[in-house]
Design a protein that fits this description.
By secondary structure, the protein is α+β, with helices and mostly antiparallel strands. It has six helices and 18 strands. The protein has an 18-stranded mixed beta sheet that branches.
Length: 263
C-alpha cells in the first residue's frame, strides 16, 4: 500500500528555512513500530501521522527515535498539508486529537494559528551535568513536564552556546530550552532548543517550547503578545499570544516535497 507523504518547512515562508517536518496521511491507524521506522527513515526532527476521525484527525508525532507528546511545527505542517491537499476547505478549522488533548489550527491573514496548552515552568535546580554540558552559567533555571528552560543574560550568550551533546543526552528531560531578551527591536526574545535525548541535537524551530516561553516572558515583560525568533542555523519566526492556560502560536509553512511512501 502507498501512503501520501509531504515534507513541509514550518515557521517560515522561505524554502529550506524553518523546521522541516514530514506529514503522512493514513487511511487507518498503523502499528507504532511501523510509524517509528518511517520517522527514522525520514530522519527529520518530527514526522506526523494523520488518521481521519469523525470530527477531526488523530495526530501523532515521532522523532527518529521516540514518540513525543506535543509538537508545534509538525502540527503547523499537518494543518498546512490538509488545506493545500484540499482535504479541508480554506475556511475550515483543522481539528486534532493528540496525546496533549484537543488542538486546533486556523487560517488567519498572517498565516496559520495554533491553539496549544500552556506549559509554564517553575524554578528548579539544574539536572546534574546540565550546566557543564551547556558550557555557560544561566541566570535562571526552570522546568515543566517536558523540558528545562534556562535564561541567559544576552542574545549573544544564547547564540554562542556550543553544547556537549553527548553529556546533554544524559539529562532526563525531553529537551533544553535556552532563551534571552532579543538585542534588537524586531523580536521580543530569542531561543534555541536542544533535544539529544529525543534524538535531535538541535531542533531548528520548536513550537511546543513556546508554550513554556510565552508564559515565561509574559511574567517578565508584562504583556501577552510576542514576536519570537529561534536562532538556530536555519532560523524561524513565530508570533506568540498567551491567553490564560492557552498559548496561540502563529506562523507560516511551505511545501518542499510531495510523494508516496511505498512500504
Amino acid at each position: 500500500m502507498a501512503f501520501r507523504i509531504l515534507q513541509i518547512d514550518a515557521f517560515t515562508s522561505k524554502p529550506f528555512c524553518g523546521n522541516p517536518a514530514a506529514v503522512c496521511f493514513l487511511p487507518e491507524a498503523q502499528e507504532e513500530k511501523w510509524m517509528q521506522a518511517v520517522a527514522r527513515e525520514m530522519n527529520l526532527s518530527e514526522t506526523a501521522f494523520l488518521v481521519r476521525e469523525t470530527d477531526g484527525f488523530r495526530l501523532r508525532w515521532f522523532t527518529p527515535t521516540v514518540e513525543v507528546a506535543l509538537c508545534g511545527h509538525a502540527t503547523l505542517a499537518s494543518a498546512h498539508a490538509l488545506w493545500e491537499e484540499g482535504i479541508l476547505g480554506p475556511a475550515e478549522q483543522a481539528r486534532f486529537f493528540t496525546q496533549s488533548g484537543f488542538l486546533t489550527a486556523t487560517r488567519v491573514d498572517a498565516g496559520i494559528e495554533l491553539n496549544f496548552p500552556a506549559t509554564p515552568v517553575t524554578a528548579a535546580s539544574p539536572a546534574r551535568g546540565l550546566i557543564e554540558a551547556l558550557g555557560a552559567k544561566p541566570l535562571y533555571v526552570g522546568k515543566n513536564a517536558f523540558d528545562y528552560l534556562l535564561l541567559f543574560g544576552s542574545e549573544s550568550a544564547v547564540r554562542n552556546l556550543s553544547p556537549d551533546f553527548v553529556r546533554l543526552r544524559e539529562v532526563e528531560a525531553r529537551g533544553i530550552i535556552v532563551t534571552a531578551r532579543s538585542d534588537g527591536q524586531e523580536f521580543d526574545f530569542v531561543s534555541r532548543f536542544f533535544g539529544p535525548a529525543a534524538g535531535i541535537d538541535e531542533d531548528p524551530v520548536t513550537g511546543s517550547a513556546h508554550c513554556a516561553l510565552g508564559p515565561f516572558w509574559q511574567e517578565r515583560l508584562g504583556k501577552q503578545e510576542f514576536h519570537a525568533h529561534q536562532v538556530s542555523s536555519r532560523g524561524g519566526t513565530l508570533s506568540v499570544r498567551v491567553e490564560g492556560d492557552r498559548v496561540y502560536l502563529r506562523g507560516n509553512a511551505i511545501t518542499i516535497l510531495r510523494g508516496e511512501l511505498c512500504a
